C-alpha cells in the first residue's frame, strides 16, 4: 500500500452554481481501507475521480507516498492506482482476458508477463481461468462481472485501489459474498483502498476508517467503525 494525502481538494463543474467538492483534506495510511460514505450527490464519485485524474481538480493537491501526482500523466498514474466501478465497467467488445490485460499492456508489461498475470488474477478472484478467459462480459453473471472488474483493477499490481460502489449492482447475497472476498484480498494484498458507498452497513463492515460526508464532501466524521458506532 501507499499513503494518500488530499490537500484542500475542490471541484466546480462548469456552469454549476456551487462546487461539487469544496476543500476536502484527508490523510490515508498505507494499507488501510477508507470508506467514503454519504448521500447521493454529496461528491463521493467526484472526489474519487480526482484522485485518479478522470476529473481535473479545480484546486488542491494529491500526494501518493509523498509524491505530488496532481499533474502526473494519467497513463503513468495507472501503475499506481487501480479503479473498479459499479456494473464492473468492463468493455463489452473485449473478452475477460483482454479486459484484465488492458492496464498491464498499457503500462509496458511483456506479452508473457501479461498472459501469466491474467491467469493469476482470475484465480485470485475465484474464477477458473480455463472457463472464463475467453468469455465476453455479457456471458457472465453480475457477480462474476464484478469479480472481473476487481481483477482488472488489480492487474498491474497498483499500491492504491479506488472502488466506486463496486457491489452496488449485484443482489444482496452476492454482495455479501463479494464483501467477504474483498476483506480476504485486503488481508492478502495490503492495498490502500478508498471505497465509495452510500450503504452505511457496507461502510461499517469493510472500513478501517470511515469518512462520513455531507454536501460538497464536507467531512462530518472521520474515524474507525467502532468510534462512529458509539458516537
Ligand atoms: P456522489 O458520488 O456522492 O453521488 P457526485 O460526485 O457524482 O456525487 O456528484 C456531486 C455533485 O456534482 C452532484 O450535485 C452532481 O449533480 C454534480 N455533478 C457530477 N458530475 C457532474 C458533471 N459532469 N457536470 C456537472 N455536475 C456534475
Ligand atoms: P448467477 O447470476 O446466479 O451467477 P447466471 O444465470 O447469470 O447465474 O449464470 C449461471 C452460470 O451460467 C454462471 O456460471 C455463468 O457464468 C454461466 N452463464 C451465464 N450466461 C452465460 C452465457 N451466455 N454463456 C455461457 N455461460 C453463461
UniProtKB/TrEMBL annotation:
It comes from the Bacteria. Residues 4-231 form the ABC transporter domain. One of its GO terms (molecular function) is ATP binding. Keywords: ATP-binding, Nucleotide-binding, Repeat, Transport. Belongs to the ABC transporter superfamily. This is ABC transporter ATP-binding protein. It comes from Streptomyces mutomycini.
Amino acid at each position: 500500500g501507499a499513503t494518500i494525502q488530499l490537500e484542500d481538494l475542490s471541484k466546480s463543474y462548469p456552469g454549476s452554481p456551487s462546487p461539487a467538492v469544496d476543500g476536502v483534506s484527508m490523510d490515508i495510511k498505507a494499507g488501510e481501507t477508507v470508506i467514503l460514505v454519504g448521500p447521493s450527490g454529496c461528491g463521493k464519485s467526484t472526489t474519487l475521480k480526482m484522485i485518479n485524474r478522470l476529473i481535473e481538480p479545480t484546486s488542491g493537491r494529491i500526494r501518493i507516498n509523498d509524491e505530488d501526482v496532481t499533474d502526473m500523466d494519467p497513463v503513468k498514474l495507472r501503475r499506481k492506482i487501480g479503479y473498479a466501478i459499479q456494473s464492473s465497467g468492463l468493455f463489452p467488445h473485449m473478452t475477460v482476458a483482454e479486459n484484465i490485460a488492458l492496464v498491464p499492456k498499457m503500462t509496458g508489461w511483456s506479452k508473457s508477463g501479461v498472459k501469466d498475470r491474467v491467469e493469476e488474477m482470475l484465480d485470485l478472484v475465484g474464477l477458473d481461468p480455463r472457463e472464463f478467459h475467453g468469455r465476453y462480459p455479457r456471458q457472465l453473471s453480475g457477480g462474476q462481472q464484478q469479480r472481473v472488474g476487481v481483477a482488472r483493477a488489480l492487474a498491474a499490481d497498483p499500491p492504491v485501489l479506488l472502488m466506486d460502489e463496486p457491489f452496488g449492482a449485484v443482489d444482496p447475497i452476492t454482495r455479501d459474498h463479494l464483501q467477504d472476498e474483498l476483506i480476504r484480498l485486503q488481508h492478502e494484498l495490503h492495498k490502500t483502498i478508498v471505497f465509495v458507498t452510500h450503504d452505511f452497513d457496507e461502510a461499517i463492515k469493510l472500513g478501517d476508517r470511515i469518512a462520513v460526508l455531507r454536501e460538497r464532501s464536507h467531512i462530518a466524521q472521520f474515524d474507525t467503525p467502532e468510534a462512529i458506532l458509539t458516537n
